[in-house]
């Protein structure tokens, strides 16, 4: 029974390994006004490195793969333990195969979620850096409509509050 489980397990891992996420920002930034392409390339490299450090130094794909491997391994161990408890040696092999299969499926979903979160954090750090360097970054469509109509974005206005009291011991 173990021989039939191994090809199935290998196939599931190969399919799960085909999922990839971007290795850089998910949208394009453009050179800022008055910036030449070499300045843009220097800023782009610097900001990619900055964004990578903000997500822990691992690429989004590395984080995805690590999450998938961990969840699949846990599923294999739990499945083997349940199989061994239920049916001995052969049950452990079947349980390990089923645990790896279900752990891989659950792991693919968890890894996709983890990869998506890492990509969002990477994008935020990259766009903040590029904007600080004076380059143009993508703007959500809702904000682009607001700016194209000439309206300034809504800001909160301070209320009509009295000034704070003076600190203790302050002469009046």
UniProtKB/TrEMBL annotation:
Give the YMGG-like Gly-zipper domain ranges.
Answer: 69-108
- Which Pfam families does its entry note? Gly-zipper_YMGG
Region forming the signal peptide: 1-21
Residue spans with biased composition (Pro residues)? 160-172
Arranged from A to Z, the UniProt key words for this protein are:
Signal
**Listed Polar residues bias regions:** 148-157
UniProt key word Iron: no
Q: Does the keyword Signal apply?
A: yes
Region (Disordered) residue spans: 148-172
Q: Which domain of life is it from?
A: Bacteria
What is this protein's name? YMGG-like Gly-zipper
Q: Name the species this protein comes from.
A: Methylophilus rhizosphaerae
